[in-house]
Amino acid sequence: MLKVINPATEHVVRELAEDDSSTLARKTATARAAQRAWARTPLANRLAAVRRFGELLQSRRESLAKILTTEMGKPIRQSRNELTAMQGRIDFFLEHTETAIADEVVLLGAGTPPMEERIRYEPLGVIASISAWNYPYFVGSNVYLPAILTGNAVLYKPSEFATLSGLAVAELLHQAGVPDEIFQPIVGGGDTGRALLAQEIDAVCFTGSYSTGRKIAEAVAPRLLRVQLELGGKDPAYVCDDLHPGAAATALVEGAFYNAGQSCCAVERIYVQRRIAGDFIAAFVEATRALIMGNPLDERTDVGPLARQPQLEVLECQVADALARGAQLELGGRRCSGPGYFFEPTVLTRVNHDMAVMREESFGPIIGIQEVADDAEAIGLMNDTEYGLTAAVYSRDRARAERILGQVNAGSAYWNCCDRVSPRLPWSGRKHSGLGATLSVAGIRALVQPKAWHLRSSC
């Protein structure tokens, strides 16, 4: 049985039966049998179902937000924000799917007899979508919405730390008109995920850690399955000396500590030009100290618990390693007493790249701030990582910021902003941050495959 635990109280919320090889085989077979008919269903019908899903989602926003907060600890305001912003993703896919997968005639009438060359986009088939817990609505919908719209069947395994939200998604999709066989929730942890990979699927889309993503890629490599991996990051931000440090500090506190830092695109390391470093650090510490940590169901709470208890030890080890190597603790640094997986918002200075906190993904409310002499040093340090998800530059000078960001190997670049995702732009990672792209037209086309048509009117 899978136990759903409230990370703020450590109480068991619910117990659920997990899928095993036999239930997975049955679900896969029914998905396979239903997928072709779904692909033949007029796109207008599929669009209507997803439109209705969005309406149902918003009508139940409050109850869904409470479920999300209870099972993974996100402050209720942030859970509500995620659900509200879901409509933007839904609207994007509704608006752009038809154009993205429309037939393309690339040659017409050339030669004798005349030849037509056409590209048609066909669904991949049965997709295993293994999603994340930190933003279960955002992350999951990046895959299952375009997958459903383009005619695929989806075996959707939400993270074991956001299972109730995943089951709610399935309920609403079915109520909206997506057949039960086309979107099937999978319940379970790592063993269930491994068993899912062994089924007769056509593609796997995963969001999570690099280590798990690599294992997934290795597991399905002999079958040459389509693989899409949205993995972690060690996202840097650089604060230039040509702006007031207070404004950047306020923005970066939110970028570092929103959702308790449990975002793949959360700011995890900050570089600040030496001339303004003292003022920036003072402003950053002051803004961090003002954050309210506590009961995530309280409207005033800014920082809730971590979703996973083992991450507390990871953060403790990073703090201890940094202090042993000469870092200075400005704030926080400890897990909180009492029930719940709470860790104090933590700020470390006098850090360097010998320290784990500046090199290894933290995924928690902890940040290291390092002083740099100039842009060149900042660029070198921003690139000194195995990851390549996002990078941010804060500067009054757009040309300067773009010049710096153009030299950083990351999938997303931010000028005077951070920790931001848009459905209109591709979400992709470099190096250990992943393979492929979600969102944008590229994310829609990631879930179809082209067929080349050579059409001649006579022999």
What does this entry look like structurally?
This protein is of the alpha/beta class and 459 residues long. It is built from 14 helices and 22 strands. It has a seven-stranded mixed beta sheet, with helices on both faces. The chain has a six-stranded mixed beta sheet with strand order 7-6-5-8-9-20, with helices on both faces. The protein has a three-stranded antiparallel beta sheet with strand order 3-4-22, with no helix packed on it. A hairpin with a 4-residue loop joins strand 3 and strand 4 (115-123). Helix 2 (43-59) crosses helix 6. The model has no long low-confidence stretch (mean pLDDT 97).
Structural class: alpha/beta
Strand % is 15-25%
Shape: globular
Terminal CA distance reads: 63 Å
Roughly how many Å is the radius of gyration?
A: 23 Å
Average pLDDT rating: 97
For the biggest β-sheet, the strand order reads 12-13-14-11-10-16-17
- Major sheet characteristics: 7 strands, mixed
Residue runs with pLDDT of under 50 for 5 or more positions:
none
Give the helix tally: 14
Q: Which key phrases capture this entry?
A:
459 residues, alpha/beta, seven-stranded mixed sheet, six-stranded mixed sheet, 14 helices, globular
SSE order and pairing:
Layout: E1 2-5, E2 12-16, H1 21-40, H2 43-59, H3 61-72, H4 76-100, E3 104-110, E4 115-123, E5 126-130, H5 136-149, E6 153-157, H6 163-176, E7 183-185, H7 190-197, E8 203-207, H8 210-220, E9 226-230, E10 235-239, H9 245-257, E11 267-273, H10 274-289, H11 310-324, E12 328-331, E13 346-349, E14 366-372, H12 375-382, E15 387-388, E16 390-394, H13 398-405, E17 412-415, E18 427-428, E19 430-431, E20 434-435, E21 437-438, H14 440-445, E22 448-456
Parallel strand pairs: 5-6, 5-8, 6-7, 8-9, 10-11, 10-16, 11-14, 13-14, 16-17
Antiparallel strand pairs: 1-2, 3-4, 4-22, 9-20, 12-13, 15-19, 18-21
